C-alpha cells in the first residue's frame, strides 16, 4: 500500500518538473508546485488524493482506509519490525528515545510474529 502511494507521489513530482520550468527538484516526495516542502495539512490532503486515485481495473477504489502521514510512519515502523530490524535501529531511525514508545507502536506486529513462530514450531513437532 505505502509503495503504491509513494510511487504515485514521485510520478506527480516528475510531471510537475516536466511541465513547469519554475519547479525546483530537491529530491523531496511531498512538494508544492515549486518543489518546496509542503505543509503537513497539504501532505495529508495529497496522500488522500493519491489514495483515492488508486483504483482496480473496474474503477473501484482499492484502498478504503483513511491514510495520513501518521499511518505511513506507523506502517514504516511495523515493516521494519517484521523484517527483524533491531529495536535500537528502529528507535534511531524514527527518533524515539524511549523504547516503550516504539514497543507500543508495533506490539501488534510482534504478537503476529509470535503466532507465526508458534505455527512453525507446531509444524516441526508433527
TrEMBL record:
UniProt entry tagged with the keyword Hydrolase: no
Name of protein: Tyrosine-type recombinase/integrase
PROSITE patterns (UniProt xref): TYR_RECOMBINASE (PS51898)
Highest taxon of source: Bacteria
Originating organism: Macrococcoides canis
InterPro entries: DNA_brk_join_enz, Integrase-like_cat_sf, Integrase_catalytic, Tyrosine_recombinase_XerCD
Keywords linked to the UniProt accession: DNA recombination
MF annotations from Gene Ontology: DNA binding
